[in-house]
Design brief:
Oligomer: single chain
Strand content: 35-45%
Strand order of the largest sheet: 3-2-6-12-9-10
Shape: elongated
Largest sheet: 6 strands, antiparallel
Structural class: mainly beta
Radius of gyration: 47 Å
Number of strands: 47
Helix content: under 10%
């Protein structure tokens, strides 16, 4: 490789290092490299001809290639529309020389001209507007001239111009001197590198504190001192700043009555697709004191202004415990709750204005929390939007609710107050003695059979039979259903018993005053072994028949089997199992006479048509007189 090409290769490597290639995400500042949209040179010896600069070297200054004097200038037009709305930090025009007349002489200058719409000629050159920069270094014989044209690009962007035209020439005093002449490399031609950045900002409508939207006017939301999480969404139009390590968000917090006590926290590696979040320590906050906060964002080059302040009031104290009374349920363990009546309870905040409402449970309180929503922001639901909560009729006031215990026996009721920030008091507890009240579940008709309909009858507790309006029941894990009660307070439901593992039904009755009973449950299990029956020797715990008295034993298929080929049986396991074929209906009958009085066990296995034997045997025990 020649010395000239080695230097050109080095220059190309530098250019690549300075350039942000299209589609490459980089943090601010950003660099773009532009090629000219128009590039040409003129010739004084051909004043009405424009010479496009594309692929071949271009002359600059004076030369005499054919014995006549030729003076050339280069015109370059660049499209800078992409930088609209950005702050241009730097802009440099890069050229590369391919040959020079005299290594000791170099004088090149750049002018801004009126924007060219076509390649200029010597006789029809665009009007010069201002001198921009020059390059006179002779450090390298074949050099790489560069020119600071940031002023030109900035002015064009600020005025909304989409293109700029630059004239490259030898200064007037040297322009006709052939010793200052040179040629510019046509392979690399010219390039404009621009350092640019769009200033980031905070999105006003996406500012949150403690999971609540930013409040800019009173009344301010109350925030739990342990949950002052501030969130703000940064915005940046530069793709390279939109994720990863693109932007940094600062949060500032201060008491409204002491702005000098300002605390700032920084969130690194923020993204424009999710809020930045900063948690401030609880020790900073005083109960009842108002605070303000704001946010700003920087991309490493530009920093936004601080956002308008958001405000909140800190809550650093739990509300007092409530007083609880009941109009009809004993709370002092002196008696039983009445069956069929909801408990009428009154919760009292004692006039303390910090009490916003109440929460109760028959078990343990759940722990309130937040979820993540759009933009990964915290979503904290209203404490009074959930079940088992009620607002007081006024701050520190009362609330009356009708409650029905879930279950019977000693049942614990726990109640606590909630304040506007969602903080809870210590709970108060009461043991209430609740009599059982569950409905009765019975089967209508014969014993349930697999893959047949089963009808169940629901009968309410006797104390509420004349007030029962319906039953809420559930079969297995299906949806709950409601069946209306008849005039006698009962109801029936039917379902198909088609699960090999059996079924479980739960049911509660509901009275006309809204009271609900205990939950009753009924289970159906299908044994995985054959059925065995005998009229002479029933399995009822009493001896029957006698020595030598024959009895028949009938074998039926396991409830969930569709086909049975045979049965294998043995009395008292002392003899090998005997196999008997099953009939077309899947049953088989044997006759057997006991050799002696006493208690016997009959073991029976079912056999499928493929010869496989079920895992479990039926054990039929009976007594012989």
């Amino acid at each position: 490789m020649s010395k000239r090409r080695s230097l050109l290769a080095l220059c190309g490597a530098v250019a690549v290092a300075l350039t942000a290639l299209p589609g490459t995400a980089t943090a601010a500042p950003h660099f773009s490299q532009l090629s000219p949209v128009l590039a040409s040179h003129t010739d004084s010896a051909a004043p009405h001809t424009a010479f496009a600069w594309a692929g071949q070297d271009a002359p600059l200054g004076a030369s005499k290639p054919d014995g006549r004097l030729h003076v050339s200038r280069v015109y370059l037009t660049f499209d800078v529309a992409a930088f609209a709305g950005t702050r241009v930090g730097a802009a440099t025009l890069h050229l590369e020389e391919s040959a020079v007349a005299d290594c000791a002489k170099r004088a090149i200058e750049v002018w801004e001209t009126k924007t060219a719409t076509a390649d200029p000629t010597w006789a029809n050159a665009p009007e010069r507007k201002r001198w921009v920069d020059d390059f006179t270094s002779t450090g390298l014989c074949v050099g790489y001239p560069s020119f600071d044209v940031a002023t030109v690009v900035r002015d064009a962007v600020s005025r909304g111009k989409s293109r700029v035209t630059l004239e490259v020439k030898v200064p007037q005093q040297f322009e006709r001197d052939v010793t200052y002449g040179r040629t510019l490399d046509g392979y690399y031609r010219a390039a404009l590198t621009v350092q640019h950045n769009r200033a980031p900002s905070i999105v006003d409508q996406h500012r949150y504190n403690g999971g609540l939207a930013c409040a800019t006017t009173a009344p301010y939301p109350r925030l739990n001192q342990h949950f002052v999480a501030l969130e703000a969404l940064p915005a940046d139009a530069d793709p390279g700043d939109q994720q990863g390590s693109g932007v940094t968000v600062d949060f500032a917090l201060w008491p409204q009555d002491d702005p000098a006590a300002r605390t700032e926290q920084r969130v690194q590696y923020a993204e424009t697709t999710r809020v930045a979040r900063s948690q401030f320590p609880a020790a900073l906050f005083t109960d009842g004191r108002a605070y303000s906060w704001q946010a700003r964002v920087t991309d490493g080059v530009d920093t936004s202004a601080w956002s308008e302040p958001c405000h909140f009031t800190a809550d650093a104290a739990n509300p007092p415990a409530p007083a609880v009374t009941s109009a009809n349920y004993p709370l002092d363990e002196s008696g039983w709750a009445p069956v069929g009546e909801p408990g009428v309870f009154t919760f009292d905040g004692g006039g303390n204005p910090d009490v916003a409402g109440f929460e109760w449970t028959w078990g343990e309180f759940s722990v309130p929390g937040c979820t993540y929503g759009e933009l990964n922001r915290l979503i904290c639901s209203d404490r009074f939007a959930g079940e088992n909560t009620v607002r007081a009729d006024r701050p520190g006031g009362t609330a009356t609710v009708n409650l029905t215990p879930r279950g019977s026996g000693p049942v614990r009721l726990r109640v606590r107050t909630i304040d506007a920030a969602g903080r809870s008091s210590e709970p108060v507890s009461f043991w209430i003695y609740v009599p059982s009240s569950y409905p009765e579940v019975s089967v209508v008709g014969g014993p349930p059979r697999f893959n047949h309909d089963v009808t169940l009858k629901f009968t309410p507790h006797a104390d509420v039979a004349d007030r029962t309006v319906d039953f809420t029941y559930q079969v297995d894990q299906q949806e709950q259903r409601v069946v209306q009660a008849g005039p006698d307070g009962t109801a029936t439901v039917t379902f198909r018993a088609d699960r090999e593992n059996g079924h479980r039904v739960t049911v509660r009755s509901r009275s006309d005053n809204g009271w609900t009973s205990d939950e009753a449950s009924w289970s159906l299990n299908f044994p995985p072994w054959p059925g065995v029956t005998s009229e002479v020797y029933p399995s009822d715990g009493h001896p029957h028949g006698g020595v030598g008295v024959p009895g028949t034993f009938t074998f039926t298929p396991p409830p969930t089997w569709s086909e049975v080929a045979a049965y294998r049986y043995s009395f008292d396991w002392f003899e090998p199992h005997t196999e008997v074929a099953a009939g077309p209906d899947g049953t088989a009958t044997i006759t057997w006479a006991p050799p002696a009085p006493g208690w016997y066990s009959l073991s029976v296995y079912a056999v499928r048509p493929d010869g496989s034997v079920n895992t479990y045997d039926a054990t039929y025990s009976f007594g012989v007189a």
